């Protein structure tokens, strides 16, 4: 983190000792106008030291809560689907105390009315050129935009993803820690993720790596995830291969033919509003391209909440649960991996991949 001139001048003066000990406990005492320099989507940018953020989507809410910045969240949006898993991770009281201003993604008018100092979102995660919600349009209203690293665009194209998915999570935790003055907590979370990754990577490997297909949503076409999406990292870490890992993007649509050609050993699902797990399974069981696949007939299904599959600190929890599910299906050897986070009993489909 680089301190910019307003904070640097204060540190040079009478408040030197206070600034030198700048930590989670004294972030709120930062002088008005303090800012930080952060690299976001390949650009070094100035941000206000955030005190009144609007955070969109469960994964970004998780990232912000993970670094200890709950008190600096003015409002959230699009949280309902992830309330149970976020409550399990961060506590019911913390999550219940968040001001939820929009069931789905907020409109430009809602964002402006909320007047946050920083809007935490991403392309496909609350930023939308078609709705006029861009970093440039928000800056006109003195609202800075922090973009989810996984959602950074590839040059001038609309394709997203510019780095390894685990690196993207670490980048966001580091940046949000700097943005909110909670650097120490952010580094603690990053270290925990790295240690758990090491344990997963050291677990016994299958002689033949099972193939997994991620089914987010869709009927005529299937919304899934490619090389730069968080599911790629989650599956690989759990000792499975992503059936669409050759697609140079994060979240994409493919046809049923692509799924049939992959002949996956297991299906992983995103718990997502608008299409229930049972409806997705019904699609697999009735579509001629998939109904005879062993994974469908034997119901090798793993369903996890949206915030666990989208880029954020719950990805490591997802990797642990996928690993144990693969062991349950006898697709990988048994290991001593034990998920640190217990899934809420309300999570649909637990019967498919957990022993009763």
TrEMBL record:
The keyword Signal applies. Residues 1-22 form the signal peptide. It comes from the Bacteria. PANTHER family: IRON(III) DICITRATE-BINDING PROTEIN (PTHR30535:SF7), VITAMIN B12-BINDING PROTEIN (PTHR30535). PROSITE patterns: FE_B12_PBP, PROKAR_LIPOPROTEIN. This is Vitamin B12-transporter protein BtuF. Belongs to the bacterial solute-binding protein 8 family. The keyword Lipid biosynthesis does not apply. Residues 52-330 form the Fe/B12 periplasmic-binding domain. Keywords: Signal. It holds the Pfam family Peripla_BP_2.
């Amino acid at each position: 983190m680089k301190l910019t001139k307003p904070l640097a001048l204060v540190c040079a003066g009478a408040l030197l000792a206070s600034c030198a000990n700048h930590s989670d406990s004294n972030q709120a005492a930062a002088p008005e106008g303090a800012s930080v320099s952060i690299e976001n989507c390949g650009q070094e940018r100035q941000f206000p030291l955030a005190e009144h953020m609007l955070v969109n989507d469960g994964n970004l809410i998780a990232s912000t809560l993970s670094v200890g910045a709950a008190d600096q969240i003015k409002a959230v949006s699009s949280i309902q689907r992830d309330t149970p898993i976020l409550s399990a991770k961060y506590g019911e009281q913390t999550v219940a105390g968040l001001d939820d201003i929009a069931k789905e993604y907020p409109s430009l008018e809602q964002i402006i009315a909320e007047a946050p100092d920083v809007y935490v979102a991403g392309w496909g995660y609350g930023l939308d050129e078609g709705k006029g919600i861009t970093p440039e349009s928000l800056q006109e209203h003195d609202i800075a935009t922090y973009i989810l690293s996984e959602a950074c665009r590839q040059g001038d194209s609309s394709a997203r993803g510019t780095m390894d998915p685990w690196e993207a999570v670490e980048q966001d935790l580091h940046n949000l820690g700097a943005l909110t003055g909670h650097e120490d907590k952010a580094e603690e979370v990053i270290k925990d993720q790295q240690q758990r990754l090491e344990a997963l990577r050291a677990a016994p490997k299958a002689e033949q790596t099972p193939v997994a297909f991620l089914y987010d949503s869709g009927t005529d076409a299937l919304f899934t995830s490619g090389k730069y999406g968080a599911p790629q990292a989650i599956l690989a870490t759990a000792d499975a291969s992503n059936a669409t890992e050759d697609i140079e993007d994060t979240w994409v649509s493919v046809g049923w033919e692509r799924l049939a050609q992959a002949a996956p050993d297991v299906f992983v699902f995103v718990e997502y509003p608008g299409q229930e797990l049972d409806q997705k399974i019904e699609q697999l069981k009735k579509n001629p391209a998939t109904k005879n696949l062993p994974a469908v007939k034997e119901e090798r299904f793993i369903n996890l909440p949206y915030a666990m599959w989208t880029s954020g600190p719950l990805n490591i929890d997802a990797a642990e649960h996928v690993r144990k599910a693969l062991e349950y299906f006898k697709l990988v050897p048994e290991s001593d991996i034990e998920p640190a986070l217990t899934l809420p009993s309300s999570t649909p489909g637990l019967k498919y991949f957990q022993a009763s």
